Amino acid sequence: MTLIEPGGARTSFSHNLQFASEIAAYRDTPAGHIRKMFETAGNELYTLDPQKIAQAIVDVATSDHPPLRVTLGGDAFGVVQAALQSRLAFLQSQEALARSVAFDS
Length: 105
What we know:
One of its GO terms (molecular function) is oxidoreductase activity. InterPro entries: SDR_oxidoreductase. This is SDR-family protein. It comes from Novosphingobium subterraneum. The protein is mainly α and 105 residues long. The chain has one domain. It has four helices and two strands. The chain has helices at residues 30-40, 50-61, 74-93, 95-99, and strands at 3-6, 69-72.
């Protein structure tokens, strides 16, 4: 099994979105920010070629040793990299505590 983590692909998806009336109470929430992103997004948000994504997925799926995760696109790479760096920094901040619970030698 391989998890595919793609970035924004340029398809007709965003052009066909229909939005309900905005609810003011949600405007400054994460959901509100995502809504605004989709409402105002142009091609700059969708930089990936769907044909290339499909071919990359086929290549991974038919490889002898497919990886657990595949990140496709510079935008997705940046998001995944930032998340992993954040997790690693948190882990490193816990090193002393983690090592403190071993038996004394």
